[in-house]
Amino acid sequence: MKILVIGDIVGAPGRRAVDELLPKLVDRYYIDLIVANAENAAGGLGLTPEIAQHLFNQGIDVLTSGNHIWKHKEILPYLENNHRLLRPANYPPGTPGESYTLVETAAGEPAAIFNLEGRVFMSPLECPFRTADRILASFPPDLKVILVDMHAEATSEKLALGWYLDGRVSAVVGTHTHVQTADEKILPGGTGYITDIGMTGPLLSVIGMKKEIILERFLTQRPQTFKVASQNIQLQGVVITVDAQGRCQEIQRLQVPLKP
Ligand SMILES: [Fe+2]
Ligand SMILES: [Fe+2]
Predict the structure, then answer these.
(1) 68 included as an active-site residue
(2) Number of domains making up the chain
């Protein structure tokens, strides 16, 4: 089975990259399951029901998210009612939305996806490691294909989670920093791993936002209204090949430019 995981989709440029590039990638790599992080898909911060629906209509099977999912209030009822949009699982009890989902893939095998958020340089949520234990314990024993989106800032926390789940899930992929790392590997227990799969959006930017505004913020130390940049748009992510036992056979980074 081949799984395409798309890095944080940033605003309209990121959505355009998905619209135009996704059909070609599905054909080229024989993709059976598409997962994308959508926490920045609406104007660079958050997600709206209309945009979530648009992304599902493009063929994405599951949307994961992260710390920015709460930006637009109208997403809360959608999170409650749509089980293919995930929020990180380690928020407090009573948080709206699903923390994991089970889907039937184009390959005919079921797959489970769950989303966690890191705690280093981020909000003090529940322990992502123990949350992963709890979710895995709830899965049927014959479920083989399991993908984890670890939405976190610190490389150390993501890598530690990769080791913690090695041999228990098919892959742990990092999101949130918007900068793709070149450390993709298969851990000894058969779990695919990469610290960050990158961003789908404009690269001539600071993590998707107009660089002039971000520079102003650093130079003045005053808050600024961020605006999504527009140039050098790429779709970034990984293609993960998983065998019948759910073990990762290959993890390949993607950086696909959108032709202007
Ligand atoms: Fe993000
Ligand atoms: Fe984030």
Answers:
(1) yes
(2) 1
